[in-house]
Amino acid sequence: MEANRDPYEIRPGVPSVEVYRLLRTGAGLSDKSAEAAAVALPRTWYGVVLYHRGTAVGMGRVVGDGGTAFQVVDVCVLPAHQGQGLGKRIMGALTAELERGAPATAYVSLIADGPARFLYEKFGFADVAAHDSVGMYRYLSPR
After folding, report:
1. Considering the domain boundaries, does residue 140 fall inside one?
2. Alpha helices in 8-83 (DSSP H)
3. What CATH number did the domain enclosing 98 receive?
Protein backbone atom coordinates (compact mmCIF):
# COMPACT_ATOMS: atom_id res chain seq x y z
CA MET A 1 0.00 0.00 0.00
CA GLU A 2 2.02 2.93 -1.27
CA ALA A 3 -0.72 5.38 -0.17
CA ASN A 4 0.09 4.78 3.53
CA ARG A 5 3.81 5.34 3.06
CA ASP A 6 5.17 8.36 4.95
CA PRO A 7 6.18 10.96 2.33
CA TYR A 8 8.70 12.49 4.76
CA GLU A 9 12.18 11.22 5.50
CA ILE A 10 14.86 12.59 7.83
CA ARG A 11 18.45 11.95 6.82
CA PRO A 12 21.60 12.81 8.76
CA GLY A 13 23.71 15.50 7.14
CA VAL A 14 23.50 19.09 6.06
CA PRO A 15 22.00 20.62 2.93
CA SER A 16 23.99 22.33 0.22
CA VAL A 17 24.68 26.03 0.73
CA GLU A 18 21.95 26.94 -1.75
CA VAL A 19 19.34 24.69 -0.13
CA TYR A 20 20.38 25.86 3.35
CA ARG A 21 19.73 29.48 2.39
CA LEU A 22 16.42 28.61 0.69
CA LEU A 23 15.19 26.66 3.72
CA ARG A 24 16.15 29.45 6.14
CA THR A 25 14.53 32.26 4.17
CA GLY A 26 11.55 30.13 3.11
CA ALA A 27 10.81 29.35 6.75
CA GLY A 28 11.12 33.00 7.80
CA LEU A 29 14.60 32.86 9.31
CA SER A 30 17.24 35.44 8.42
CA ASP A 31 19.41 34.84 5.39
CA LYS A 32 23.08 34.01 5.77
CA SER A 33 25.64 34.78 3.09
CA ALA A 34 26.78 31.97 0.83
CA GLU A 35 30.31 32.52 2.12
CA ALA A 36 29.27 32.18 5.76
CA ALA A 37 27.16 29.09 5.05
CA ALA A 38 30.03 27.46 3.13
CA VAL A 39 32.25 27.83 6.20
CA ALA A 40 29.60 26.83 8.76
CA LEU A 41 27.93 23.77 7.25
CA PRO A 42 31.01 21.48 7.21
CA ARG A 43 31.63 22.37 10.86
CA THR A 44 28.26 20.99 11.95
CA TRP A 45 28.58 18.51 14.84
CA TYR A 46 25.34 16.80 13.77
CA GLY A 47 22.65 17.80 11.34
CA VAL A 48 19.55 16.45 9.69
CA VAL A 49 17.64 17.34 6.56
CA LEU A 50 13.92 16.64 6.25
CA TYR A 51 12.80 15.57 2.78
CA HIS A 52 9.32 15.40 1.29
CA ARG A 53 9.31 13.01 -1.65
CA GLY A 54 13.00 13.72 -2.21
CA THR A 55 12.89 17.52 -1.87
CA ALA A 56 14.38 19.24 1.18
CA VAL A 57 11.66 20.98 3.21
CA GLY A 58 13.29 21.29 6.65
CA MET A 59 16.48 20.93 8.62
CA GLY A 60 18.19 21.29 11.97
CA ARG A 61 21.79 21.35 13.16
CA VAL A 62 23.84 21.03 16.32
CA VAL A 63 27.07 22.99 16.46
CA GLY A 64 29.68 23.09 19.20
CA ASP A 65 33.03 21.99 20.44
CA GLY A 66 32.10 18.31 20.72
CA GLY A 67 32.73 18.15 24.44
CA THR A 68 31.49 20.93 26.68
CA ALA A 69 29.18 23.16 24.67
CA PHE A 70 26.59 22.55 21.99
CA GLN A 71 23.95 24.76 20.42
CA VAL A 72 20.87 23.71 18.46
CA VAL A 73 20.50 25.96 15.41
CA ASP A 74 18.70 26.27 12.08
CA VAL A 75 15.63 24.25 13.07
CA CYS A 76 13.05 25.06 10.41
CA VAL A 77 10.32 23.62 8.23
CA LEU A 78 8.90 25.31 5.16
CA PRO A 79 5.41 26.76 5.81
CA ALA A 80 3.60 24.40 3.43
CA HIS A 81 4.78 21.50 5.59
CA GLN A 82 4.30 23.00 9.05
CA GLY A 83 1.68 21.81 11.53
CA GLN A 84 2.36 18.11 10.98
CA GLY A 85 4.79 17.42 13.80
CA LEU A 86 7.83 17.68 11.54
CA GLY A 87 9.64 20.11 13.83
CA LYS A 88 9.24 17.46 16.55
CA ARG A 89 10.79 14.87 14.28
CA ILE A 90 13.76 17.13 13.58
CA MET A 91 14.23 17.94 17.27
CA GLY A 92 13.81 14.27 18.16
CA ALA A 93 16.64 13.32 15.80
CA LEU A 94 18.91 16.10 17.10
CA THR A 95 18.31 15.39 20.78
CA ALA A 96 18.68 11.63 20.27
CA GLU A 97 22.13 12.23 18.79
CA LEU A 98 23.05 14.60 21.61
CA GLU A 99 22.00 12.01 24.19
CA ARG A 100 23.94 9.32 22.33
CA GLY A 101 27.13 11.19 21.53
CA ALA A 102 27.61 14.21 23.77
CA PRO A 103 29.14 13.95 27.25
CA ALA A 104 26.59 14.02 30.08
CA THR A 105 28.22 17.18 31.46
CA ALA A 106 27.82 19.13 28.21
CA TYR A 107 25.81 22.34 28.13
CA VAL A 108 23.25 22.39 25.32
CA SER A 109 21.63 25.70 24.43
CA LEU A 110 19.40 27.25 21.80
CA ILE A 111 17.62 30.50 21.08
CA ALA A 112 13.86 30.04 20.77
CA ASP A 113 12.03 32.50 18.55
CA GLY A 114 8.38 33.13 19.40
CA PRO A 115 6.17 30.08 19.85
CA ALA A 116 9.03 27.70 18.98
CA ARG A 117 9.76 27.71 22.71
CA PHE A 118 6.83 25.34 23.23
CA LEU A 119 8.39 22.80 20.86
CA TYR A 120 11.76 23.02 22.60
CA GLU A 121 10.20 22.66 26.06
CA LYS A 122 8.92 19.23 24.97
CA PHE A 123 12.57 18.19 24.59
CA GLY A 124 13.64 19.33 28.04
CA PHE A 125 14.82 22.86 27.24
CA ALA A 126 14.02 25.53 29.84
CA ASP A 127 14.44 29.28 30.14
CA VAL A 128 17.98 30.05 31.25
CA ALA A 129 16.72 32.95 33.37
CA ALA A 130 15.29 30.33 35.70
CA HIS A 131 18.84 29.20 36.53
CA ASP A 132 20.49 32.49 37.42
CA SER A 133 21.68 32.88 33.84
CA VAL A 134 20.57 35.16 31.05
CA GLY A 135 20.78 34.25 27.39
CA MET A 136 22.49 36.96 25.38
CA TYR A 137 23.44 37.51 21.77
CA ARG A 138 25.26 39.90 19.53
CA TYR A 139 25.18 40.32 15.77
CA LEU A 140 28.45 41.41 14.22
CA SER A 141 28.21 44.46 12.00
CA PRO A 142 28.21 43.70 8.28
CA ARG A 143 31.55 44.31 6.65
Report:
1. no
2. 17-26, 34-40
3. 3.40.630.30
Q: Pairing relation of β-strands 69-77 and 107-110?
A: parallel
In the chain, the amino acid numbered 3 is: A
Which structural domain range is residue 104 located in? 2-131
Instruction: Kindly state the average pLDDT of the residues 42-53.
Output: 98
List Cβ neighbours of 60 (8 Å cut-off, separation of 6 or more): 47, 48, 72, 73, 74, 75, 76, 90, 91, 93, 94
The helix/strand count (H/E) of the chain reads as: 4, 5
Give the single-character DSSP code of 5: S
> pLDDT by residue (tens digit) across 95-141?
999 999 999 999 999 988 778 888 888 998 888 776 677 777 777 77
